[in-house]
């Protein structure tokens, strides 16, 4: 709200200069115009896609509240922008990734999740993974003393997470989730081909070792690439990142090839928020999540063969998932 400041209230020594009333009016006008333009942009986007619906007749593109306020520099000075958010549940047939609304008004940096590269190290130190923007399992956590990079990160198609990971922890290996990727592959195939494709895919991620998995991937490609090249590309193009888990202990493969461990950990929280139709408020949501996690953590278990975690972090050599050389032996 604008307030007219009497002339005699201006400091005489000039040490604390007040912005002129006309500057405040210009900035307030710019803020309102920007807010109206952003609202109109989203309304037009949603209206254009109103006919896109799922099998139950529900819209695939709807509004989803507002993003955090950002300061945008304009000719009138810094203006606060609060952009409306869009929940777009459509999937790109070519990439298998969720489609995203991108504002043509805001600059690119305003379209990304705020401070993800700054938050990622904190999440790592606490051994946490945020479902808001990191649908990933960060395995092989250190003791928390210092900020040594994680050995391997597991996730789906969260582009913001992978971009932040490469910026903050460039040496960390990447593993794509097989559950999500299988769904993407099946989405590019007719239903009649699903049973055979599922069998081929299981032979890849359940193979004896990486060599056999690579051979199984080639067999899958040979069987389907003529008729369904898009489905094959989802495996072949990212094969190295899909098979990265084979470079670690065989006891850990079941934990590393999908994001299920971290998603299952927070399943109780997710189910409860669905039943209650949302948390109600931020404070209530945090309290509910905290109590639910405290109640369920007694049933959690560690990864298989936890004693191997320290050896992997120390640089132990493995072949076909088996430990062949300990770090101490190599140092000697």
Mean of pLDDT: 78
Low-confidence stretches: 128-147
Number of strands: 9
| 3D shape | globular
**Strand line-up of the largest beta sheet:** 5-6-7
Oligomer: single chain
Bin the strand percentage.
Answer: 5-15%
3D structure, described in words:
α2 (116-126) packs across α3 (159-168) and α4 runs antiparallel to α5 (194-205). The model is unreliable at 128-147 (pLDDT under 50). This protein folds into 4 domains: 7-11 and 20-105, no CATH class; 116-176, no CATH class; 178-253; 266-299, no CATH class. Helices cover 43% and strands 12% of the residues. The N and C termini lie far apart (71 Å). 19% of the residues are buried. It has 332 residues and is an alpha+beta fold. A 3-stranded mixed sheet has the order 5-6-7. The chain has helices spanning 21-48, 116-126, 159-168, 178-187, 194-205, 210-224, 229-236, 239-242, 253-256, 260-265, 267-275, 282-296, 307-313, 327-331, and strands at residues 61-66, 70-74, 77-81, 84-88, 136-139, 152-155, 173-176, 317-319, 322-325.
Please outline what is shown here:
The chain has 332 residues and is α+β, with helices and mostly antiparallel strands. It is built from 14 helices and nine strands. Helix content is 43%, strand content 12%.
Characteristics:
single chain, 43% helix, 332 residues, 9 strands, three-stranded mixed β-sheet
